[in-house]
Amino acid sequence: LNQKFYISQSKKTIIMSHLRSETMQLFQLTVPKDDAWSVANILGSMSAAHFIDLNKNEQPFDLPYTSRIKMCDDAERKLNFLIQECKDNRIRVNKPVSGENFEELIKVVRQQRNVAMDLLFDNLDTEISNLEQFVSQQSKSL
Predict the structure, then answer these.
(1) Which of 82, 96, 102, 123 is most deeply buried (CB count within 10 A of its CB)?
(2) Could you list the residue ranges that cross the membrane (predicted)?
(3) What residues have CB less than 8 Å from 4, skipping those under 6 apart?
(4) What is the predicted pLDDT for the residue at 54?
(5) Where in the sequence is the domain holding 130, given as residue range(s)?
(6) Buried b (16+ CB within 10 A) or exposed e, 50-65
(7) Could you say which of 14, 33, 54 is where a domain stops?
(8) Count of domains forming the chain
């Protein structure tokens, strides 16, 4: 995986940093495919990286992560169905308090399931699919 990105020299949190350009440096990073998930996650958690799309001229269906994006869209659809069923049946669903809280919850789930971060989505997707199937069958039998 060969990726270019900019890193902000200051991690300003004031609003002005979002309205004006900050001094940036361009880096090109080559990462083994197996490490791409964790490296992108670390860079994303820094809140100081801006990735450059090196595939602007490629058709979206030719890109390596297109099938993964479709899987995410499908998982989101399943989750929305389950959330709606919970609302319809007056079952409370608690959202994470913040992004940081969500990241902590993900770490806990990953540790409980004892799976690598890059395999966690597949693990959760299987569970979500099974839950969707179960809830659909239960709804039909009512």
Answers:
(1) 82
(2) none
(3) 26, 27, 28, 29, 51, 52, 54
(4) 76
(5) 61-141
(6) eeeeeeeeeeeeeeee
(7) 54
(8) 2
Could you tell me if 91 and 21 lie in one domain?
Answer: no
* Continuous segment of H or E residues that includes residue 6: strand 2-8
- Which of 39, 54, 69 lies at the terminal end of a domain, its last residue? 54
36 and 73 in a single domain? The answer is: no
The reply to whether 16 and 42 lie within a common domain is yes
Res 68: pLDDT: 84
% of the chain residues with pLDDT over 90: 36
Look at residues 128, 132, 118 and name the one whose alpha carbon lies nearest to residue 34. Answer: 118
Same domain, 104 and 131: yes
What is the CB neighbour count within 10 angstroms for residue 122?
12
Q: Say if residue 49 is in the same domain as residue 8.
A: yes
Residue 113 has pLDDT above 80, yes or no: yes
CA 98, 15, 52, 35 torsion: positive or negative? negative
Q: Which of 35-44, 99-108, 117-126 has the lowest mean pLDDT?
A: 35-44
- State the Cα–Cα distance between residues 125 and 129, nearest whole angstrom: 6
